């Protein structure tokens, strides 16, 4: 099998349609593997999940995840980069079989798409200077903390600024927010957990200090009526969690070794994300054999 990279044309990115909604929950069936493989959309500008490589392709955690899935299934998965907002219309129109980009599962999104079980928690992360004694929210009291302007992280910080005596500095890019820490203008920077962990991997002056559990997860979206294919990929995710693949990818891209019980290495029961529409609680055994 091969893992292929393609480019998404503008017309495909702008395709729109209405997602088919299932009438109730169908039986929990698992689709047979498509002999001609699958096509998946991804945002190729979100390091460390998918971002340009020196050879002109894309690399990252989610790119490697798609490659591992292709290997388990024994068929091609063609990854098609495009703008994040254009991926969803292309999914609904049938251009893609699924979206390989990390997508947070929300109640609103679960009404129009099916999600696999989460492959990783979408937690908040904090980066500090290497050797800093900041390792909890309490340690931020009276500190200067940076964030990307207009982000959810800026909102979280400003809402707590008065209570925690925080000085909040915002920047147009996350890179500039991190640079403020390394230059001594700030004590910490807040972003997504994977982004802060990646920054610590790339810059020896930064370290991933701690994270805050949001209770949310990243998952892989499928069309709202495509339960059987979603269930197939959900099963592959379960395999990759239990055979060590996901732990190896976490160590490679984030420098973090998952502990037992963490979502990235622990399968959920049933198919899909528990607590959201489209979840099927049917019991089944984890397998790494697919036909």
Automatic annotation (TrEMBL):
Superkingdom of origin organism: Bacteria
Lineage: Bacteria, Pseudomonadati, Pseudomonadota, Alphaproteobacteria, Rhodobacterales
Name by which UniProt lists this protein: Cystine-binding periplasmic protein
Organism: Pseudooceanicola marinus
Tagged with keyword Signal: yes
Stretch forming the signal peptide: 1-22
Keywords of the record: Signal
Residue ranges of every copy of the Solute-binding protein family 3/N-terminal domain listed in the record: 37-257
């Amino acid at each position: 099998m091969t893992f292929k990279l393609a480019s998404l044309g503008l017309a495909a990115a702008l395709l729109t349609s209405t997602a088919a909604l299932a009438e109730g929950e169908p039986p929990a069936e698992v689709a047979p593997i498509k002999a001609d493989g699958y096509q998946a959309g991804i945002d190729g500008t979100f390091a460390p999940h998918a971002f340009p490589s020196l050879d002109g392709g894309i690399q990252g955690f989610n790119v490697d995840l798609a490659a591992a899935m292709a290997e388990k299934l024994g068929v091609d998965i063609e990854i098609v980069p495009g703008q994040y907002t254009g991926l969803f219309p292309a999914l609904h129109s049938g251009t893609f079989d699924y979206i390989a980009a990390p997508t947070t599962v929300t109640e609103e999104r679960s009404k129009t798409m099916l999600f696999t079980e989460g492959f990783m928690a979408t937690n908040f992360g904090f980066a500090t200077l290497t050797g800093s004694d900041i390792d909890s929210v309490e340690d931020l009291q009276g500190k200067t903390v940076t964030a990307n302007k207009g982000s959810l992280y800026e909102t979280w910080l400003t809402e707590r600024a008065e209570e925690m005596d925080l000085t909040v500095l915002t920047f147009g890019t996350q890179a500039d927010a991190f640079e403020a820490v390394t230059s001594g203008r700030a004590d910490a920077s807040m972003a997504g957990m994977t982004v802060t962990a990646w920054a610590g991997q790339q810059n020896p002056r930064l370290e991933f200090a701690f994270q805050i559990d949001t209770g949310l997860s990243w998952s892989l979206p499928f069309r709202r009526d495509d339960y059987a294919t979603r269930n197939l990929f959900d099963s592959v995710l379960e395999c990759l969690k239990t055979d060590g693949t996901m732990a190896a990818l976490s160590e490679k891209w984030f420098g973090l070794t998952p502990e037992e019980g963490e979502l990235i290495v622990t399968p959920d029961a049933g198919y899909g994300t528990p607590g959201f529409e489209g979840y099927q609680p049917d019991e089944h055994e984890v397998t790494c054999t697919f036909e």
